[in-house]
Amino acid sequence: AITQGTYFCCLLFCTVNQILQAQENLRVEIQEQRNTVSQILQAQENLREEIQKQSNTGRGDVSCPSSWKCIGKSGYFFSTATVTWDEANTDCSSRQAQLLVLANKGEMDALVPHMDGKPYWIGLKKIVNNWTWHNGLIPSFTSWNPNEPNNAGGRENCVEMKSGLWNDIDCTIKLAYICKSIWFY
């Protein structure tokens, strides 16, 4: 005969197993969704690049609005105001731009001379312990300072770039920021 204690142990064991299985199923589903989003965003980026190539055929660098800098085929806004990461992200959106997402090291190297040695917010943020561009893409390269990222104080979930090197930093710190145009890159 099964005692009441044995019955409750079996019931508890079954419940724990069901919870663990549900947790694993959710983890797999979340990863599949991330992969899908990443593929969509990469396809979008490829389309933008193709449109840019076609629209610039036979032309030199693009022209930028005042207060923006044209560097290569893109336009960049280097803020003088200092704000939190979220405020920078919002301001870039209001300018029909995005907080800087670096396509490659060459793009980063082209921006460094315009930074005057100052730190700027870039669009990289830690989401569930993964560094991800705010548009969902995984960085194709990194340029961390030595011993970074280190999550000092347990609150460093955003990234500043200074002289081409990255540092994880508290998102509520106020820094200047770089927006990249979404209308011609």
Automatic annotation (TrEMBL):
<dbReference type="InterPro" id="IPR016186">
    <property type="entry name" value="C-type_lectin-like/link_sf"/>
</dbReference>
<keyword id="KW-0175">Coiled coil</keyword>
<feature type="domain" description="C-type lectin">
    <location>
        <begin position="71"/>
        <end position="180"/>
    </location>
</feature>
<dbReference type="InterPro" id="IPR016187">
    <property type="entry name" value="CTDL_fold"/>
</dbReference>
<dbReference type="Pfam" id="PF00059">
    <property type="entry name" value="Lectin_C"/>
</dbReference>
<keyword id="KW-1015">Disulfide bond</keyword>
<dbReference type="InterPro" id="IPR018378">
    <property type="entry name" value="C-type_lectin_CS"/>
</dbReference>
<protein>
    <recommendedName>
        <fullName>C-type lectin domain-containing protein</fullName>
    </recommendedName>
</protein>
<keyword id="KW-0732">Signal</keyword>
<dbReference type="InterPro" id="IPR050111">
    <property type="entry name" value="C-type_lectin/snaclec_domain"/>
</dbReference>
<feature type="signal peptide">
    <location>
        <begin position="1"/>
        <end position="22"/>
    </location>
</feature>
<dbReference type="InterPro" id="IPR001304">
    <property type="entry name" value="C-type_lectin-like"/>
</dbReference>
<feature type="coiled-coil region">
    <location>
        <begin position="16"/>
        <end position="57"/>
    </location>
</feature>
